[in-house]
């Protein structure tokens, strides 16, 4: 109803305009070779909406508005036909699609975002994405894919394949995807042997990778140096070796909560000089990780729910007066065997405010 009124309004304005802006139109008409009776030309020169065809096509039961085609929650089993060729966003989430066929996206050259979250997709034809030469966002989470799709467009910036059945990330899975910024691979049945060491090497601009809630036992190898956030929470990682974070000079956030880490080797933190936030809660650490006093930027470190039995006065802060460039704004140590009253207050001399320290294992009882 409203859009009908809007269309009528636009049409009437468009018809009214020529007679008001006569100066501007005179100028335009000078360019016309046949500058005969001007006014008759005007209506066709002034576009009534962007290239509106006789009857705008929109797939049955979907909603189409401003190049967005909305077909979510319809129970559909196939990708609809007759998707307008100028579509930029196609939303097909919460349906019952099982397969993506070769010609499903034919002609969708302008498509920027494709949302297929929460379907039942098991098969994607190897050429299905070939027409999508401008695709930047591909959301395939919550499906039943056993493999990453082949031939993902090189323009892709954000790829989400969370909660599928993917057990392998191959050397060729992301070949040539130099524009990826965000990569979400969590909740897939991955093991460390299923993640190839060279899988990530082409992702030269990636800044965010999440591989949470899988069964990997070590930090994936060959992570790109552009990374600023790495989320590996909820895995089975047992050890953080010095080399596992080597070269990640832009890493600012590292999530390793809910793993089985018992050792973080001395020297690891020196490899990530710009780390600001480190989540190591719910692991098996028996000591505070080495290297914190020498680290210049770390501000938040979660160590609650570990097996830390003692905390020394030099575990967090440098011995001499502040050589850190940023003070801590969050340290958590509760739910560890260490008794909070055994930790000397001077231990936290480089903490911004006392409220930033959460020791309170006494609160739990
Ligand atoms: C991890 O392994 C366990 C035991 O084999 C299995 O039950 C679980 O489903 C696996 N997790 C994932 C995300 O595949
Ligand atoms: C870590 O290594 C540095 C440099 O080799 C050394 O000075 C420091 O004492 C070590 N820390 C621990 C806790 O072993």
Characterize the structure shown.
The chain has 365 residues and is an alpha/beta fold. Helix content is 10%, strand content 13%. The protein contains 3 helices and 18 strands. A 14-stranded mixed beta sheet has the order 1-2-3-5-7-8-9-10-11-13-15-16-17-18, with no helix packed on it. It has a two-stranded parallel ribbon with strand order 4-6. Strands 12-14 form a two-stranded parallel sheet. It is elongated, with a radius of gyration of 28 Å.
Task: Give a brief rundown of this model.
It is built from 3 helices and 18 strands. By secondary structure, the protein is an alpha/beta fold.
Strand proportion: 5-15%
Strand numbers in spatial order across the main sheet: 1-2-3-5-7-8-9-10-11-13-15-16-17-18
Shape: elongated
Number of helices: 3
Q: Tell how many strands the DSSP assignment holds.
A: 18
Instruction: Profile the largest sheet.
Output: 14 strands, mixed
Q: Helices and strands: which structural class? A: alpha/beta
List keywords for this structure.
single chain; 365 residues; alpha/beta; 14-stranded mixed beta sheet; two-stranded parallel ribbon; 3 helices; 13% strand; elongated; disordered N terminus; binds 2-acetamido-2-deoxy-beta-D-glucopyranose
């Amino acid at each position: 109803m409203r859009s009908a009124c809007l269309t009528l309004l636009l049409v009437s304005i468009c018809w009214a305009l020529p007679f008001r802006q006569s100066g501007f139109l005179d100028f335009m008409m000078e360019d016309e070779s046949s500058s005969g009776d001007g006014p008759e030309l005007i209506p066709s020169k002034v576009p009534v909406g962007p290239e509106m065809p006789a009857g705008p096509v929109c797939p049955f039961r979907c909603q189409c508005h401003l190049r967005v085609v909305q077909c979510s929650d319809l129970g559909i089993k196939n990708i609809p036909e007759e998707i307008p060729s100028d579509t930029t966003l196609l939303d097909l989430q919460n349906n019952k699609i099982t397969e993506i066929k070769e010609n499903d996206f034919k002609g969708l050259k302008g498509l920027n975002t494709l949302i297929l979250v929460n379907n039942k997709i098991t098969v994607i034809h190897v050429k299905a994405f070939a027409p999508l030469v401008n695709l930047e966002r591909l959301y395939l989470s919550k499906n039943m894919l056993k493999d990453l799709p082949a031939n993902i467009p090189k323009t892709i910036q954000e790829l989400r394949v969370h909660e599928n059945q993917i057990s392998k990330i191959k050397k060729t899975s992301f070949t040539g995807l130099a524009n990826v910024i965000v990569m979400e691979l969590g909740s897939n049945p991955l093991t460390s042997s299923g993640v190839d060491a060279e899988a990530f090497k082409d992702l030269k601009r990636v800044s965010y990778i999440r591989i949470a809630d899988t069964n990997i036992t070590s930090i994936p190898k060959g992570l790109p140096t552009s990374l600023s956030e790495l989320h590996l929470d909820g895995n089975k990682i047992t050890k953080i070796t010095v080399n596992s974070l080597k070269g990640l000079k832009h890493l600012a956030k590292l999530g390793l909560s809910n793993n089985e880490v018992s050792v973080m080797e001395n020297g690891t933190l020196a490899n990530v000089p710009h780390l600001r936030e480190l989540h190591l809660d719910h692991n098996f650490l028996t000591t505070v990780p080495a290297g914190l006093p020498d680290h210049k930027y770390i501000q938040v470190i979660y160590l609650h729910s570990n097996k830390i039995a003692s905390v020394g006065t030099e575990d967090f802060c440098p011995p001499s007066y502040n050589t850190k460039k940023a003070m801590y704004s969050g340290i958590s140590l509760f739910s560890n065997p260490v008794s909070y009253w055994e930790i000397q207050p001077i231990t936290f001399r480089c903490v911004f405010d006392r409220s930033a320290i959460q020791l309170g294992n006494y609160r739990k009882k």
